[in-house]
Design a protein that fits this description.
Number of domains of chain A: 1
Strand content of chain A: under 5%
CATH architecture of chain C: Orthogonal Bundle
Number of strands of chain C: 0
Order of helices and strands of chain A: HHH
Radius of gyration of chain A: 18 Å
Largest interface: B-C, 63 and 54 residues
Oligomer: heterotrimer
CATH topology of chain C: Helix Hairpins
Chains: A mainly alpha (86), B mainly alpha (249), C mainly alpha (114)
Distance between the termini of chain A: 63 Å
Order of helices and strands of chain C: HHH
Number of helices of chain C: 3
Number of helices of chain A: 3
Distance between the termini of chain C: 53 Å
Largest sheet of chain C: none
Largest sheet of chain A: none
CATH class of chain C: Mainly Alpha
Structural class of chain C: mainly alpha
Structural class of chain A: mainly alpha
Helix content of chain C: 55-70%
Number of domains of chain C: 1
Radius of gyration of chain C: 19 Å
Number of strands of chain A: 0
Chain lengths: 86, 249, 114
């Protein structure tokens, strides 16, 4: 039997997971992914897994957004023109 | 549009089939919250007595399932090498990023206070990883966060100066190699690879666990260096894009 | 109520797959792969949970209460950190594709075959 906190965490994780997929704009999706990671952390704590929760909170709050934002910035406007023949 | 429609048409029946298989397979799993976990019960009852570590998860990661963690280390090494190869060798070597994020004085002072605190948290999480929840993996990522903060609250030049490329590359490879070599201590002592043959110390204290402590630190160093390397490459791309945009190329 | 955890895991998995199939950008595709991966984390930890269990740390634990399974936690925590490196590799491929072809749309790269 799941407790109320665990059931609520599962539902929130499911809702946000679908929200991440439905977001088409990569920038907005990065923010929703950060919140998705936080709800996953809440779920992991509710399931009695503090080690996994520490990893998930640091990874989804710092590592994922940095990597995604740098990629979005680097692919924003058309590529570099091919000046020489490579 | 028709290509996407065709792809969706192919996806929906296979998704229904996969969903059905998943539900059918998961239906017979023992109930959520069942008490029938024989391996888990044995581990939580014996790890503290055998290895003198109180965080059973760390004991499992670095000792009872140490071989799986060695595989994970090699995965990180391969992925980071691939990223570095792809991004470093295809970059134009004559172009340097000359634009940077501008920070105010207040941000810089806050960074001077925050960065050592985060480094301290990283060291604490990594070193007490086998006593309380934590470990080399978590501490490594937190240490990389501290390195990232030196860029966010300072300048890119300071960030690169504090994390020189030979040091980061060497630490990354050295950490993974260190993990694999520490496993050979077991071979030298006449036991199996990755066997825990060093003295075990006392539970709840820092010198405990034998090779668990050494593997913990090797992992922390390798993961911290891997994350810093990834951040280097991606930040360089971001700043190059900033430079290109502002100089109107 | 006891099938909720595994239903959530299956839903996340299929949602991530749907995102990968109908994706218009390699960055969106990489994030949907991350969602699919998190479905496996949810499934693993749900399998390992013990009713009224406490975290598997013996220092400061209450005697008599059962412990939650530590093996699935060990697998999951290494996986979470390693997924960052793998995501970085996928995104660097996306950046390289953009650098060569000027776009991150998988549809517009069909002409580069052969």
């Amino acid at each position: 039997m799941t407790t109320a906190l665990q059931a609520a965490s599962y539902v929130v994780v499911a809702v946000l997971g679908v929200a991440v997929v439905v977001c088409r704009d990569p920038l907005r999706q990065t923010m929703v992914l950060g919140i998705f990671g936080l709800t996953l952390t809440l779920l992991f704590v509710a399931l009695g897994a503090p080690d996994v929760a520490i990893s998930e909170v640091v990874v989804s709050t710092v590592a994922f957004p940095v990597v995604l934002l740098a990629t979005i910035s680097g692919t924003r406007h058309g590529g570099r023109e091919q000046e020489e023949d490579r | 549009m028709s290509r996407e429609r065709r792809r969706l048409l192919a996806f929906v029946p296979s998704a229904v089939l996969l969903g059905g298989l998943l539900v059918w397979g998961l239906w017979d799993i023992p109930d959520f919250g069942t008490a029938h976990h024989e391996y888990a019960r044995w581990l939580t009852g014996h790890v503290t007595a055998q290895r003198h570590v109180s965080n059973v998860v760390s004991g499992v990661v670095f000792d009872y399932r140490g071989w799986d963690t060695a595989g994970e280390e090699v995965i990180v090494f391969a992925a980071v090498t691939g990223t570095a190869l792809l991004l470093r060798t295809t970059r134009d070597p004559d172009v340097e990023p000359t634009r940077d994020v501008e920070t105010s004085d207040l941000t810089r002072r806050a960074g001077d206070v925050a960065v050592p605190l985060v480094v301290l948290v990283a060291l604490w999480t990594a070193s007490f990883g086998y006593v309380t929840p934590g470990g080399g993996f978590q501490g490594g990522v937190i240490a990389a966060t501290a390195a990232l903060l030196t860029w966010l609250t300072g300048s890119y030049r300071r960030h690169r100066a504090l994390t020189p490329v030979p040091l980061v590359d060497g630490a990354e490879g050295g950490g993974v190699l260190g993990y694999l070599l520490i496993g050979c201590i077991g071979l030298l002592a006449g036991s199996a690879y990755l066997a825990n043959v060093l003295p075990h110390g006392s539970p709840g204290a820092l010198p405990a666990g034998g090779t668990i402590a050494l593997l913990n630190w090797a992992t922390g160093v390798a993961i911290a260096a891997a994350m810093v390397l990834i951040f280097h490459e991606f930040l360089e791309e971001h700043l190059l894009a900033l430079t290109e945009r502002e100089e109107g190329r | 109520m006891t099938v909720l955890p595994f239903l959530v895991a299956a839903l996340l998995f299929l949602a991530g797959l749907y995102g990968v199939v109908t994706s218009r950008s390699y960055i969106h595709l990489a994030v949907c792969l991350a969602v699919t991966q998190s479905a496996t984390y949810v499934a693993l930890l749900s399998v390992g949970y013990v009713r009224n269990g406490q975290p598997p740390v013996t220092k400061g634990s209450t005697p008599g209460k059962p412990f939650v399974d530590p093996v699935v936690q060990a697998m999951t925590l290494t996986d979470v950190v390693v997924s960052v490196a793998v995501l970085a590799l996928v995104l660097s491929l996306a950046m390289l594709a953009h650098r060569t072809h000027g776009t991150v749309d998988p549809e517009q790269m069909r002409e580069t075959r052969g």
